[in-house]
Write a structure and sequence with these properties.
Order of helices and strands: EHEHEHEHEHEHHEHEEEH
Number of strands: 10
Strand order of the largest sheet: 1-2-3-4-5-6-7-8
Strand content: 15-25%
CATH topology: TIM Barrel
CATH architecture: Alpha-Beta Barrel
Oligomer: single chain
Number of domains: 1
CATH class: Alpha Beta
Radius of gyration: 16 Å
Helix content: 25-40%
Largest sheet: 8 strands, parallel, barrel
Structural class: alpha/beta
Distance between the termini: 8 Å
Length: about 210
């Protein structure tokens, strides 16, 4: 089970996540988010850091040049596109880094129809709660995961949206052949952008 901890704003916490064998860490480049990375972590320090975890830049409807600059400045290993980015943009970025395309899940959605245009141009999908406010505002809402069990998907995907430390059993019980990992964020925080490492460790242990 892969774990992605999103909304990191401190270099020390990245080091701690690496020490906990967390697989992915998300750095949010969306200025409207309370977890916006801004100048909180030194670009050169992060670029030079030797981590086993993958550094993921999270963007919402960005300009291509801004993503490319962030990849270069921070030494990103992957990007997560959380807006209405085109398959063409994903394809262009996939020659630089791994690409995670995020989709906002609502009731009655045809998952397979929604992801089909991105099938050949992304490395992973991520399924999250309905809107940007839920995704980046830390409202802690979950969607009905059974929507995904009825879809083929056929690409490794992350579950996201309001996952809590006590949800480890629920996550372990979720079954889909392409289920790759979980994305955790606001429910594991002391304050926006500052994680409670005890809760992260508790969750990781609970998934074993």
């Amino acid at each position: 089970m892969n774990i992605k901890v999103c909304g990191i704003t401190e270099m020390k916490q990245l080091q701690q996540l690496d020490g906990l064998d967390i697989d992915f860490a998300g750095l949010i480049f969306y200025k409207e988010s309370p977890r916006y990375i801004g100048e909180k972590i030194s670009k050169s320090e992060l670029k030079k850091a030797d981590f086993d975890l993958k550094k993921v830049g999270v963007f919402v409807n960005p300009e291509m040049i801004d993503v490319l600059d962030a990849i270069d400045d921070y030494g990103l290993d992957a990007v997560q596109l959380h807006g209405d980015e085109s398959p063409e943009m994903c394809d262009d970025l996939s020659s630089e880094v791994e690409v995670i395309k995020a989709f906002r899940v609502t009731d009655g959605l045809d998952i397979d129809k929604m992801v089909a245009p991105y099938d050949a141009v992304c490395d992973y999908y991520l399924f999250d709660t309905g809107g940007l406010k839920e995704s980046f505002g830390g409202t802690g809402k979950q969607f009905d995961w059974t929507i995904l069990t009825k879809a083929k998907i056929e690409k490794p995907f992350f579950l996201s949206g309001g996952i809590r430390p006590e949800d480890a059993v629920k996550v372990k019980g979720f079954k889909h052949p392409d289920f790759f990992g979980v994305d955790i964020n606001s429910q594991f925080e002391k304050e926006p952008g500052v994680k409670d490492m005890g809760k992260v460790l508790q969750f990781r242990q609970g998934l074993k």
